[in-house]
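Thread: quick sanity check before group meeting

JM: Hey all, I'm pulling together slides for Thursday and realized we never actually wrote out the predicted structure for the chain we discussed last week. Dropping the sequence here so it's in one place. If anyone has concerns about the input, flag it before I start.
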Amino acid sequence: MDLTPLYLSAKLSLVSTAILLVLAMPLAALLVFVPFRGRFLADSLVNLPLVLPPTVLGFYLLIIMGPDGPVGRLWAGLWGGSIVFTFGGIVLAAMVHSLPFAVQPLKTAYEKIDPRLLEMADVLGASPISTFFRVILPNATSGIAASAILAFAHTMGEFGVILMIGGSIPGRTKVASIAIYEYVEAMRYREAALLSLILVVISYSILLMVNMLGKRGSRHA
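JM (edit): ok, ran it. Output follows.
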């Protein structure tokens, strides 16, 4: 059995999760600690991929990332060519689809931080950036870990959005979930079963890690 789709899924999950964490940590802090008009609208927008059908999200991403879309034109201007049907394209699509899974655990962890720590940092003259790196992040390690694990797991199982943006190009965009679908279509049930079993084991292991983090967080609380 060809394990290249599984390798691509793992690579996609690692790359998109790493970039997503860098973006999600300050975004979650903005939604929790910075009061601004329309914050609930921004929060709802971040969570929109949770309720949108993957095909709907994939369609709009295809429009935005296509040759005539803003992201597509920007990509062509910087690197040439099209971002659609490339590994970079499915990384961007996976980040958008997994954004709520990265932001929500961080928001929960931030909300549990003792407000007195932030007040003390303010009294001592710490800047917002210094407070973020020296107070908020060190006190939200379990949330950061949960965010990374959930984003990774969600990306490993993505299908509809990835298929619409990346298609099924062997060695480039054909991830494990798409390979399973094609195995079933071709009635190659043995390969589909083996690949599915590997994903079940990975998913169950990830759930165990999330539960362990949750119990550890409860004990600390």
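AS: nice. Residues 15 and 91 are 7 Å apart (CA to CA). The chain has a mean pLDDT of 90.
JM: adding both to the slides.
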